Amino acid sequence: MLDVPLPRPARFVTFEGGEGVGKSTQVKRLLATLRRLSVDAVATREPGGTPKAEAIRSYILQGRSESWGAGAEAVLFAAARHDHVKELIAPSLASGKWVISDRFHDSTRAYQGLTGGVDEKLITGLEVLALDGHAPDLTIVLDMDPEEAFDRVSRRELEGALVETGDRFEKEDLEWHSRLREAFLEIARNNPERCVVIPAAQTPDALEIRIWSVLTKRFPELLAGRGS
């Protein structure tokens, strides 16, 4: 009998962390690596990923929902996530594709929940509704001191790069972003089987290597070329 490699199982990987820690860059790099290995994969983002979710993203990041309060924003994020899961994430995983997402449900828990003060029961209820059983297999939490992250964002702005979130969340003060950082670290502590914290204050190349090391330890089939 021919030794034919088994198909790799589909995986769902999310990237989390505060503003300016390099999530988007590393999502792109990971997607490129997976495709070089002939792993069928798709990159997406939250809020967003589908036309309806992108419309909600635009509304929130323009600051138009800010006056509604953190609770209403959590509901809006959950609505966007529900459509994202239904229309993109679930079908992709079902077809055997890896899904790599720049933010997912942990961001709502960190921003609106632990930092914004929205009740834990509401956050959990919205998660159950929006995820519909599609929790990430692995979450990479990129951690960086907020002051250093702010410096990164400022440099990007000076260089003319598009910083979309600057009109909503990046305008919060340093104390708020420090609490946000602690929120993500708390989420990671509470979910050690899923979350891995990686220091983000390193070069993009070094960070990429560290992330790949985490992935291959968690999903050894990436190196073996076989399903688990």
From TrEMBL:
Q: Which reaction does it catalyse?
A: dTMP + ATP = dTDP + ADP
Its BP terms in the Gene Ontology are:
dTDP biosynthetic process; dTTP biosynthetic process; dUDP biosynthetic process
Answer whether the UniProt record assigns the keyword Cytoplasm to this protein: no
Known CDD domains for this protein?
Answer: TMPK (cd01672)
Q: Where does ATP bind?
A: G17, G18, E19, G20, V21, G22, K23, S24
Asked if Transferase is a keyword of the record, the answer is yes
Per UniProt, the keywords (alphabetical) are: ATP-binding, Kinase, Nucleotide biosynthesis, Nucleotide-binding, Transferase
- GO CC annotations on file: cytosol
Q: Could you tell me the EC number(s) of this protein?
A: 2.7.4.9
EC class of the enzyme, as a word = transferase
Looking at the record, the residues that make up the Thymidylate kinase-like domain are: 15-208
Which Gene Ontology molecular function entries are recorded, alphabetically?
A: ATP binding; dTMP kinase activity
User: Could you tell me what this protein does?
Assistant: Phosphorylation of dTMP to form dTDP in both de novo and salvage pathways of dTTP synthesis.
Q: Name the PANTHER family on file.
A: THYMIDYLATE KINASE (PTHR10344), UMP-CMP KINASE 2, MITOCHONDRIAL (PTHR10344:SF4)
Q: Belongs to which family?
A: Belongs to the thymidylate kinase family.
Q: What is this protein called?
A: Thymidylate kinase
Encoded by which gene?
Answer: tmk
